[in-house]
Design brief:
Blueprint: E1 8-21, E2 24-39, E3 53-56, E4 59-62, E5 64-71, E6 87-92, E7 105-110, E8 119-126
Antiparallel strand pairs: 1-2, 1-6, 2-5, 3-4, 5-8, 6-7, 7-8
Amino acid sequence: MARSLFADTFTAYAPATATIVNGFEVPGYSSQGTTPGKVAGSSMQTRDTATRTVTVGAMELLVVEGGLHIPISAPVPVAGEYGTGWEYALTTPGPLTDPALTGSRWLVVSVPAKSYATARRLDVCRIV
């Protein structure tokens, strides 16, 4: 049932070798393929206000707890450290997703695990 709600398509990117462009180090990323999924807010059961942030570059970004849902069968991403980790770009929004989110990129900051999971609920922050 959870997978039936995954109407969006994301492209996964893993950190790769950085390159130097005009004297600046530019992080490299390698595509890890696509996966269905969805962006979701915090659980209505907790009703807590999200207050956790991470620093990426010089910016404080709000973490969306369990904000990106992907199939449990998808490759397990590596959480970011120092603002670098797996990222998921929303390439094709589903019929219920705001088209303005197309191209948005989400940095995985933690990968919670639990028993009897039907989907991976990744803690992410929106970086683009």
